[in-house]
Structure formats: structure tokens, C-alpha cells
Design brief:
The chain is mostly helical. The chain contains eleven helices and no strands.
């Protein structure tokens, strides 16, 4: 994946960072150290401000679309396929959804959603926040604003870590990729185990 971006966007690093930030689970938490890594880009390495802004824009671009798609499917759960899809979606995000839904009032729900998105971990982020926001009973613009605020803090945390530890951007990038890969493998294993138990 890294080779693809380096080979095709070596003359336009911001585009590579923007596209990487738009990927699910990758988002700004990996795009920022990717943009700041001199081991990858050499002299074309982006500035901290440029990396922050580009990764932020790239990560929030899909948010509104994700919220609207989930909300669209949620309102049209009359067919068997829709009902089955929505039940799977709700089951998958049940714990996270309940933590936000138990808050009373729109403001508290939005703050909980922002806090969730602000934590730069593979299990959190704009895509997951968008799905949860789509399932919540809050207005689309309120949910989107909450995600924007959360993502600003997430980008800030990742950028601060990269700047505090000198020349650490590449290592943070690699560690983040490993964490995402481990999470994908573990999730896939749990899914296969559950599927096998159902057949038995």
C-alpha cells in the first residue's frame, strides 16, 4: 500500500495523504505520520500544519456520506434484506451505540460521539462514528458537526505525538498499520469462530 502511494504520488504528497485519510480505519491517525515521515518522502515531507489540514479534510470527507447512507437504510427497513442488514449493523455497534444513546439530550449525545471519534485508535474514528451517528436519533448536521469536532482533537493528538517524539513519524506510521492489521485479523477470526459455532 505504501509503495502504491509513493510510486504514484511522489510529486504530489498532499493528494496521497488526502486519499489515505479517506480510507476506513486508516484515516488521519495513520495519514498524519505518513505525511510527516521523512523516511518515506525525503525532501517532499509535508509540514505539520499541512499534514494536519490535509489529513483532517480527507478523513471527514466521507463522514457526511456514511451518516446519510446509514440513515437512508434505517428509514427503509421494510424489506427482509434491509432488516437483516440493519440488525447486523446494530449488533456490531451495539456497545458503542448504547454508550452514546444513554446520554440524555442532543448536546450530551453529540459530546459522547465527539469523544469517541477523538480517540485515535483502530476501533474508533470517522467511519465508525458516522455509522453510530446514522443510527442515533439526532439531526444529520448535528452528528456531522460532532464528528468534525472529534476529528480535530484526534488529528491534534496524533500530530502532537509525532512532534513530541523526534523523528518518530515513520515508526508511529508502521505501528499504527500493524495495529490496524492485527485488529482486522482478530475481527476476522472472531467472525469465523462465531459462524462455525452457529453451524454446530
Amino acid at each position: 500500500m505504501v509503495d502504491f502511494f509513493v510510486d504514484n504520488f511522489s510529486n504530489c504528497v498532499p493528494v496521497a495523504v488526502l486519499l489515505m485519510a479517506m480510507l476506513p480505519m486508516i484515516e488521519s491517525k495513520i495519514a498524519i505520520p505518513f505525511a510527516l515521515s521523512s523516511s518515506i518522502w525525503g525532501e517532499a515531507t509535508m509540514s505539520p500544519v499541512g499534514a494536519f489540514f490535509t489529513a483532517f479534510v480527507g478523513s471527514v470527507l466521507p463522514a457526511f456520506l456514511v451518516i446519510c447512507i446509514v440513515r437512508f437504510i434505517k428509514k427503509r427497513t421494510t424489506g427482509f434484506v434491509h432488516e437483516k442488514f440493519m440488525s447486523k449493523l446494530k449488533n456490531r455497534y451495539e456497545n458503542k451505540l448504547q454508550k452514546v444513546e444513554k446520554k440524555s439530550g442532543v448536546l450530551k449525545k453529540c459530546l459522547a460521539l465527539s469523544t469517541f471519534v477523538a480517540i485515535p485508535l483502530p476501533l474508533t474514528g470517522v467511519y465508525t462514528g458516522g455509522i453510530i451517528a446514522g443510527l442515533l436519533d439526532v439531526k444529520v448536521w448535528q452528528a456531522f458537526l460532532a464528528i468534525l469536532v472529534g476529528e480535530i482533537f484526534s488529528c491534534g493528538i496524533v500530530l502532537a505525538v509525532c512532534l513530541i517524539f523526534d523523528n518518530s513519524a515513520f515508526y508511529i506510521f508502521v505501528i499504527s498499520l500493524i495495529l490496524v492489521a492485527v485488529w482486522i485479523v482478530v475481527s476476522a477470526l472472531f467472525y469465523l469462530i462465531k459462524k462455525h459455532k452457529r453451524k454446530i
